[in-house]
Specification:
Elements (H helix, E strand, L loop, with lengths): L4 E4 L2 E4 L15 E3 L5 E3 L7 E6 L6 H17 L3 E7 L3 H11 L4 E5 L5 H6 L2 E2 L4 E2 L2 E5 L5 E6 L9 H12 L1
Helix pairs in contact: 1-4
Length: 170
Amino acid sequence: MNKRQVKLEKTPLDLAGDPVELGSKAPNFNVLDNDLKAFSISDIHDKILVISSVPSLDTPVCDAQTRRFNQAAIELGEDVEILTISMDLPFAQKRWCAATGVDRVRTLSDHKSASFGKAFGVLIPDLRLLARAVFVLDRDKTIRYIQIVDEITNEPDYTDVLNAVKALIT
């Protein structure tokens, strides 16, 4: 069996869950928003969706990634919804958003059941964290772009992600 892995400072970490594929419909998942309300992908209608998966907002790279996508959300307009999903507790996510001024990215917590991590194949079970990854879905929730960052201490390729989003807008 060929294991799917990412690295943390060159140490291999196995990924669990079912990997998604380009051109397939995005699987549903259940997470919590910052007010402890249930959220699922079916709650988003007629939007291009960017799902940014991060290990923890309280780390410099995850902080930078989420801030970068917050800025991109302003530039991309109302047709694009950007989600950042981590295993952080909703209380911590809410505090982080207030402290950083992030208000265009919706932060969501997968801590309860790892539903997103399992559904998208980015759960790191040994650490109970999510791998750093970005998924772009069209308005029909078909997966049009996947980037799983090999070394989770590195940022994603924002240019690639944003080009994929812009291709769906035009």
